[in-house]
Amino acid sequence: MAARLLARTPRTEADLEARLVRLGYRRETAAAAVARCRELGWVGDAAYARERASALRARGAGSLKIAADLAARGLPQAVVEAAVAESLAGEREHDWARRLLERRRVHHAAARARAWRLLQRQGFPEEVVVELLGWGE
Question: Quick one: which of 39, 41, 40, 48 has its CA closest to 14?
Fold first, then answer.
């Protein structure tokens, strides 16, 4: 059953175990199934977090939004922090924010308020937004 659940969508270890319990498996059996899936490389919180963070980053999410998404999925803080850092792919948060503005065609000074709202909504830290938009100078 665990393999079928994982075939549909990637899951965190906690989510997989909880779903197995909801399907009627004893908690001990579900935990053993998750452990076996981990041994086989079918499930792993760190890999899940890296893949999810990368996907969100590619869609324009900033570090704050990515961290909130991963934390809401019950992932440990250390795993969240590592995934967020890796999602930057060696670039600065500033560069990701600038690319988002370029993709959304928010270039002009008159559009600063719109740019501010977009970057905040996408979870970029305030200091990145201020640096990018030149406010606070």
Answer: 48
